[in-house]
Amino acid sequence: MSPRRTAPVRREFSKATEWLEQLSVQLPALSCLGLCEDFCSKDIDASITERRRLLAAGVDLDDPTPDGACPALSRTFGAGRCSVYAIRPTICRLWGATESMPCPHGCRPEGGLVDDATAMRWMITSLQIGNHLDDPAVQELLELALTDQAAASLLSRFLRGDRAITTQLYERMIQLRARRPARSEQALLRRQRQLEEEDIGGLGVHTGARTFN
Questions:
Q1: Fewest beta carbons within 10 Å, which of 75, 76, 207, 208?
Q2: Which residues lie below 8 Å from residue 167, measured CB to CB, with a gap of 6+?
C-alpha cells in the first residue's frame, strides 16, 4: 500500500487510540496486587484497534501459549504480570471492577463494584471505537445483553476469556431472542435509547449508536 493510501489509515488508528485513552480514564481504577494471572486467558477479547496497539508493542493475542495463558503475561520476575498493562484492552481494565468479575484477592475500585449493564455499555463504546462492530451478529449480541442482567454478566465473563459458560450464554441469548419485541417496536426502542444516551466523557462516542466526532 502506498504512503498516500496508508496515511488516512494511520490517522484513523491514531484517533481511535486517543479515544480509547480518554475512555480508559472513565473506567473504575483499582490497585492491582498482581495475583490474578490464572484469569489471564488467551481467549481474552479485544477490538481491532486494541489488537493493533498490542501488536505494535510486540504482543499478538492470537499467538498460542503452552499453558493457554494470555500472550501478554510475563513471568520474568516470578509472578505473572501483564507486560502491556498500560495499554491493556478494555475488558482487562474492567477485571476486578464489575459484579461478574470481582477480584478474588479483594482488590476493589473506589466506590465499589459497578453493575454488569454499565460495564457492558463501556465495552460497547470500546468496541465501537475499535472498529469491531461491523458484524451484525456481534452488534445484536451486545444489544441483547444490555436488556438482561444475567446475559450481561455471562457475556462479560465470556469476553474476559471464560469459555466454560459458552453454553449458558448461548441458551440465554436464545431465550432473549424468543422474547424480543416486534421489529417496529424495536425501532422505537432503539430511537428512544439514542435520545437518552449519554456522551461518554465528551468523546462524541455514544453507547447506543455508532457515532464518532
A1: 76
A2: none
**Helices and strands (DSSP H and E) totals, the chain:** 8, 2
Residue of 189, 120, 108, 184 whose CA lies nearest to 157: 120
Phi, psi of 101 (to 5 degrees): -130, 55
118 phi and psi angles, rounded to 5 deg: -65, -45
Q: What is the mean pLDDT of the chain?
A: 77
The mean per-residue pLDDT over the stretch 91-112 comes to 89
Sign of the four-CA dihedral 112, 61, 145, 172: negative
pLDDT of residue 7: 60
**Nearest CA to 93 among 14, 21, 200?**
21
